[in-house]
UniProtKB/TrEMBL annotation:
<protein>
    <submittedName>
        <fullName>Helix-turn-helix transcriptional regulator</fullName>
    </submittedName>
</protein>
<dbReference type="InterPro" id="IPR001387">
    <property type="entry name" value="Cro/C1-type_HTH"/>
</dbReference>
<dbReference type="GO" id="GO:0003677">
    <property type="term" value="F:DNA binding"/>
</dbReference>
<dbReference type="InterPro" id="IPR017507">
    <property type="entry name" value="Tscrpt_reg_HipB-like"/>
</dbReference>
<dbReference type="InterPro" id="IPR010982">
    <property type="entry name" value="Lambda_DNA-bd_dom_sf"/>
</dbReference>
<dbReference type="Pfam" id="PF01381">
    <property type="entry name" value="HTH_3"/>
</dbReference>
<feature type="region of interest" description="Disordered">
    <location>
        <begin position="69"/>
        <end position="92"/>
    </location>
</feature>
<feature type="domain" description="HTH cro/C1-type">
    <location>
        <begin position="13"/>
        <end position="68"/>
    </location>
</feature>
Length: 92
């Protein structure tokens, strides 16, 4: 499953919580966070603290993994010479 938005993360957390038969209060106690935090994250609030989100995922048994996109191709020497140099800039 790929999660790309806070709304998708919130939906994933809500689905897992309900599938485990937990109330928001139960999860808040298990993750040592406030109920308001559970409500906010499940509603996709973008300003939620990452550390608390990770604690919440751990309490739900959700493992977060990073998948890296391919690295862009290296630039050639001729492209490197075209790099903007602010010390040698001459406006047209």
């Amino acid at each position: 499953m790929t999660i790309t938005t806070t709304s998708e993360l919130g939906e994933t957390i809500r689905n897992r919580r309900t599938s485990l038969g937990l109330r928001q209060q139960d999860l808040a106690l298990a993750a040592n966070v406030g109920v308001r935090f559970i409500v906010d994250i499940e509603n996709g609030k973008e300003t939620s603290q990452v550390g608390l989100v990770l604690r919440l995922l751990q309490a739900l048994g959700i493992r977060l993994t990073a998948e890296m996109s391919p690295v862009p191709a290296a630039r050639s020497a001729s492209e490197e010479s075209e790099t903007f140099d602010p010390d040698n800039f001459t406006p047209s």
